[in-house]
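Task 17 of the worksheet. Students: predict the tertiary structure of the chain below and write it out as structure tokens. Keep your answer in the requested format; marks are given for formatting as well as content.
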Amino acid sequence: MIWTGFRQESYIYRRVTWPGLVEAEDYGMFTGGRLTHSALSQLRSRGTLDFSGSAIPDEHDLVRVYYQMEDERGEAGTFALGTYFCSIGTPKYNGPLVSGSVDLESTLRLAVKGKYGRYYTVKAGTNAVAHADGIFKRLGLRTNEPRCDYVLPRDVVYGPDDSWLKIANDLLAMAGFASAYPDAYGVIQMVPYVEPQARKPVRTFNDGEDSIMLPEVSRLDNADDIPNAVYLTYETEEESLWAVCRNTDPNSRASIPYRGYEVPLVDQVTELTGATKDERLDALKAKAKTKLVDNSSSIEYVEWGHPWVPLLPNDAVGIDYLTAGLNWRGAITEQEIEVGGHCAVTGKARRFIRSGFVTETEGGSW
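Model answer:
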């Protein structure tokens, strides 16, 4: 496919039966809408579709949205954008016609809303990934059949109000996997976690002759939100300890000297190692420093627009905007996709910037 040239575009809205996730007939009443893919949300994908016709869509089944394009050479392709449960808003009737909109939620909706309802124990020796896979399958969902040898070293107990998604993602994290996400066909994907910096860019957007990137690119960071001091306390019936670690590096944008004021992070510690009071105080100081370093990673965000290309949240991308002096690499966190006309996408991506800095630590008892 030629992604950088002229394209003819159209859409298919297909009914998918539930249970079973089998494709049925195409819907004719949908006119367009918006889809949102997000790496940071529980559902990972949701949206809205407008409809107008002689009947309302079937809320019992799902809808799968396809994007069709034909490039300037006449080569055609059909690409699934997502598969969703539907919830109809307030339909409006005008004689034999009815119009309105439906809210869309990915197949993870079943795991977000579903709960065991009482304490749920996963026993020591259980294969964590296989158990997570089983949770999704018991909900009637298809998966990518992940494999991993990791087993739980001890029992893990979850509360009555914990969702199936929380339990499954927790088990996946223990095995070094990323959180589960649905692909465009509603199949639940579970894969090992890879740091964004270690991922090869799936696509690089540039401002050259074959550019498909819109000229306006936004760039911001979270420097104002980064703490520059961590205060920890530890209290038992026998002793009360405190520790503080401060970023005092004048070359760090988040530091106290650079800002001229403190941005504190305060927390309590319930467990400490050490046989003596001095050893426990040293351990508390070390925790304060570790917590400050862990919370001092700067996050840089970029937002840009482009026509649809095959990309997903968590894919690594590059932006080489030479005329703006921007050479950037990061991972997609969100995509807003316009459906119905030109398939325009607003992409959002981020990267973590970790750097060392000078600290000062102190502590004592009261």
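Marker's comment: Helices lie at 109-113, 128-138, 164-174, 256-259, 277-294. The chain has a mean pLDDT of 94.
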